[in-house]
Structure formats: C-alpha cells, structure tokens
Write a structure and sequence with these properties.
- The structure is a single chain.
- The chain has about 120 residues and is of the alpha+beta class.
- It has one domain.
- It is built from five helices and four strands.
- It has a four-stranded antiparallel β-sheet with strand order 3-2-1-4.
- About 30% of the residues are buried.
C-alpha cells in the first residue's frame, strides 16, 4: 500500500500529474484555519499538506501571508519557493517516503517549512 501511495505522489508532485479538487474539498479544506494558526505559531515561512485517496492526490500550500494555493497551483508555488528544479525534485524525493508513510497510517502529510533565504 505504501508503495502505491508513493507512486501516486510521485506522479502528482514530480511528473506534473493531475490533482483532485474533490479530494481537496473532502480532506483538506475544512482544516485551513487550523493550519493557518499552526503556521503562525511555528513561525514557518509556508506550510504544505498532501493527501492521497484511491489514486487521487490533493495538495494545499499556505504562505505566512495567509495566501492559499490549491493542487497544481500549490505545486507550482512550492517549485517557486524551492527556486531551482533540482532543489524541488531533491526535496520531494526526500519527503516522498515520509509522506507515503504518514498517509498510509491515516494521517495527512503536513509539512511546515522555514527557509534561510527570502521567499519571492
């Protein structure tokens, strides 16, 4: 199961696969206010959340300015934050097994990020 989840995440995050608006609405949308508070409390630059269900993937990215990016727009924004393609791909490759494990255990994969440089 974990390898199937990881495969679906890989397609969506590294191979520009489609993401599901319905899954976003079903699993992520209701938690936005909670994650905004968490982002502020933890003093993260941004936070992104990924979920997978039956082959569908959804993603949310929230900036420390409370900007919301959903699905493909979230992926594009994360690529901009990790401003070189190779950095984005490297970071996602590192995170994929952890994200898949979290999702397999029934949790959402929530990732708060602090950066050393200025975000654009």
């Amino acid at each position: 199961m974990k390898s199937k989840i990881e495969s679906e995440l890989r397609k969506a995050l590294l191979m520009s696969g489609e993401m599901s608006d319905g899954l976003f609405e079903y699993e992520l949308e209701e938690h936005i206010d909670y994650w905004k508070k968490s982002l502020k409390k933890d003093k993260d630059e941004f936070l992104f959340v990924v979920t997978e269900n039956n082959g569908d993937v959804a993603m949310l990215l929230i900036t420390n300015k409370n900007e919301l990016f959903i699905n493909e727009k979230a992926r594009i924004k994360l690529q901009e934050f990790w401003n070189e393609k190779i950095v984005y791909e490297h970071n996602i490759e590192l995170l994929l097994p952890v994200m898949a494990e979290e999702l397999e255990s029934g949790s959402l994969s929530v990732n708060g990020v602090k950066t050393t440089g200025k975000l654009g």
